[in-house]
Amino acid sequence: MASQHSTLDTAAILQFACDLARQGGQVIRDAFYGQGLSVEGQVKNGNPSDLVTLVDQHVETLVFGIIRERYPDHKLIGEESASDSSWTLADDPTWIVDPVDGTTNFTQRFPFVAISIALAYRKELVVGVVYNPVLDELYSARQGHGAWLNQSTRLPFPTGQPAPLPPLNQCLVGFEHGSDRTPAVLDSRLASLRRSGGGEGGAQVRGVRVLGSGALDMCMVARGATDMYWEIGSHLWDIAAGTVIVREAGGIVVNGRGGDNFDILGRKYLAIRAAANDDDAEHSIKHALAREVLTYLEDIEVTRDGI
Q1: What pTM was estimated for this model as a whole?
Q2: 136 carries a ligand binding annotation
Q3: Is there a binding annotation on residue 98?
Q4: Residue ranges of the chain assigned to CATH 3.40.190.80
Q5: Does domain 168-294 sit in CATH 3.30.70.1230?
Q6: Tell me: the pLDDT tens digits for 9-36?
Q7: Alpha-carbon distances of 132 from 2, 71, 83, 100, 290, rounded to whole Å
Q8: pLDDT tens for residues 219-240?
């Protein structure tokens, strides 16, 4: 049976997306080093924890313009334009772009900043590219063809072969603080951190890392640098490219509140890295670890993406 995206030349699309990420990344890098647009952030929607810069807007405009020239019939979803209008994910080939993931990092010149570019077809994520132009690390994948660092090193890093997954109390876990600082949301996040990281009834994981970029959090899972990443509240453009990269590196991305139905627009995600001597069946080591860690994590009510 032919793949449902067999009508797309995903090899050409992936190379185009890599080149595009590097073009957008050059703008980000120049600004980061004080040689281009300002990195000064402006508050979005009255929330001082949610920023936008001229670079976010410029890079999205640049990227969309280049995509329209090459693929005029494709749809476009971007963080900055989606913030100002309603949108939906259709069956058409659709580009999903976060022009600067980690905007607060960017304004502080904290070097975990990325441009994230994904392609979905028939609501399935098939191509993903995440590029950190400050560290010059480009993560890329297309469905069925593995995940790569700088298009030359197969993930997981450095050999392309995963290590065994440790028990939960030996895991390194990615979290994010999020931009929603309302008391109920903050209390839930802190409770999850306390229950997963603490002793005396908690999971007491080995450590927690907060990078400030969901796209790069996903890439750290694909790389094997962290064992898992959990997030509630991220948007599609934060995780779309990273989802392809994690899965093609042998990991899983599942519903962040458990259950078998992964909702790409649900804004609740759990990514777990590849494991040696494992498979993708529901009884795999990865799925068992997912079920275990979710018992320590609290749900947060969020509105689904799109309309």
Answers
A1: 0.93
A2: no
A3: yes
A4: 168-294
A5: no
A6: 999 999 999 999 999 999 999 999 999 8
A7: 34, 25, 23, 10, 28
A8: 999 999 999 999 999 999 999 9
